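Lecture 7, part 2: worked example. A protein chain together with thiamine diphosphate.
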Amino acid sequence: MGVVGMLRANHKNRQLPHKMTAPTVAPRDMANAIRALAMDAVQQADSGHPGMPMGMADVATVLFSKFLKFDPTDPHWPDRDRFILSAGHGSMLLYSLLYLTGYADMTLDELKHFRQLGSKTAGHPEYGHATGIETTTGPLGQGLGNSVGFAMAERLLRARFGEDIVSHFTYVIAGDGCLMEGIGQEAVALAGHLGLGRLILLYDNNSITIDGSTSLSTSDDHLKRFTAAGWHVQAVDGHDPDAVTRAIRKAQKVTDKPSMIACKTIIGYGAPHKQGTAATHGSPLGKDEVAAARVQLGWPYPPFEIPEPIFTAWRKIGAKGKSPRRKWVKRHAAMAAEDRAEFDRRMKGDLPKAVEDAIAAFKKKLESDKPSWATRKSSQETLEVVNPLLPDAVGGSADLTGSNNTNTKTLKSQGRSDPGGHYVHYGIREHAMAACMNGLALHGGVIPYGGTFLTFTDYCRNSIRLSAMMGIRVIYVMTHDSIGLGEDGPTHQPVEHLPSLRAIPHLRTMRPADAIETAECWQLALESKTAPTVLVLTRQNLPAIRTATDGNLCAKGAYILAGEPASPVRRGARSLGEGRAAGRRRLHAVLGAVRGPGRWLSERGHGRRRHRARGLRGRVRLRLGALAREQRRVRRHDGLWRLGQGFGSLQAFRNYSGGDRTSGAPAGWLNGGEDGGTGCNQRLRAHRPQCDACHHGVGPQGHRGGGDQRSRPGRDQRPPLPLRQRARPLQG
Ligand SMILES: Cc1ncc(C[n+]2csc(CCOP(=O)(O)OP(=O)(O)O)c2C)c(N)n1
Ligand SMILES: [Mg+2]
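Predicted complex, written out as structure tokens:
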């Protein structure tokens, strides 16, 4: 009898593996539910990563059943523990856990549609697709960087509102890849330095990456490395639930250091012929191996079927958080009214009214003073006005505080001795700074901003892209924006950075031209709850060109600086012609506001202003150069921008490859495949895709000169989740 036959025979008896009489179910069987869901979903999708979920199932079961404080009926409960899957390729681990513990929007149907068009179970976990996904991960090391921000936000808020209201842990699962990444090292060093005691890292120490054994590429002793960085470290057998339990308990008690638990695991645990090898990392196990794994694990149930006692046991775990949450609700209700209102405001992300008033008053003052400040100085002066009124602000810089002008008089440095300090010395760790700010923003209750030189946005780029993809309020203060930076030379001179930032969808890139515009751009950045902002600021002084008027003119995207033009285009031209300096300034204003993040102006739908902006585009284009032209081509001809909500999606792949994953899009076009926005490089390439059947170009309307690709039968035709309709968590 073959393996499948054995299975059938076993399944007839419907016996539960091991000894299981409700209500006690062995942890091993709880973990096997995760393993089975992961391998079956990947097998069904014919795509994905079964190895990591199968390897870490035991650890995750211990974490969720014994430690994690969460309530699926209130996924945004502010005092929940945060769970971050930094090894985002193991997304089925998270999806299985969300389903098993009872998050309403993670249904079995979603698991069955893993990596399919329109499902919440994207290739990598995407924030906003489903509740319980705290952050978007996939680019390795990002989640680890985020976790530092989550833990920092918790500590800051605990210092302000007390343990009764804020007291939770941040748990992060990271693998060999996250630990190898440079950003990982930056994050580890920062967390250790700050002594973030509520941060617990569960390291999937399986010694395997895609290429094979980790011995091919690394000789790091992570335990020593983490110890040197100031972490508490332990090493355990990741398949021994008792050992994992003891280690997490111990880690929780270490309050002055972050904790790392290296969990020795076997990747693909349970797949008899493939476990322990890279073969389980990123490919379906194959029908026979899945069947063999069922026998090996003692799991005779058909795909996606979880036996009732095991399912009930998981749901009980999901229900455990109700009681602590209710107690928290009572404590919250008992807070002093003023404190409660402040806590709620901060978790909602609303700004105090006083901020708007103060910026308006500051603009009036600037109008009369007419300072010729560099915009980095204008930025600092704005922050001096805002920060005392905005306790949410968490500033910082990657060791360029005096250059970025990011610190203000009222802020104290964040650190062990002042856990409530709102200024972070990130050190020379630009990438971790950006990822950490993402974590701060995602946690809620704080508004992060941080600075470096514009040219070093390259070091932060993937995190900036993720801020934009997630639609979160992170403010990047990028100074020294041009050749006016001084004598540092070409290594420090940003040339292509501005257009390349503007090519990132949903990112607001603003380059104010004087002090008033800087104040206005700051206001926009602070008010922008659903998009990050890059403030591009000068080192050199600029003359005042604006007179303050009521309202925020930069919010319009573009506006007429002076006089009444005969037509917007001619107006722009005339400004340029009127004199070099004036022309530059005019262009500054336009670049600062119009091009912005590329789309937000037109999305706002102000017809007249849109017209004006379009009129000015011809001028702007001259300065933006080749990259912007490529970007426009991508958008105009290929339509992926719209279809993929700006970042690429399964939908785009399906539409453009005729719905067949293996038929292949044009070379180099969508090689992100099912990885989704986190892995798709659509932004980086500008090929015009062709239909692989007839070689006609395809666009948003489908085929040009051919049939509509989307009408191909035999594929999931569920519509994608429109960006705005996704289950975007309210912060708090
Ligand atoms: C920044 C980045 N580089 C490369 C990749 C592609 N990638 C995905 S998983 C992986 C290997 C990760 O190894 P590990 O963390 O040990 O995961 P495991 O194989 O143990 O599941 C790589 C290189 C990525 N997702 N992100
Ligand atoms: Mg590994």
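The radius of gyration is 27 Å. The chain has a mean pLDDT of 81. Keep this in mind for problem set question 3.
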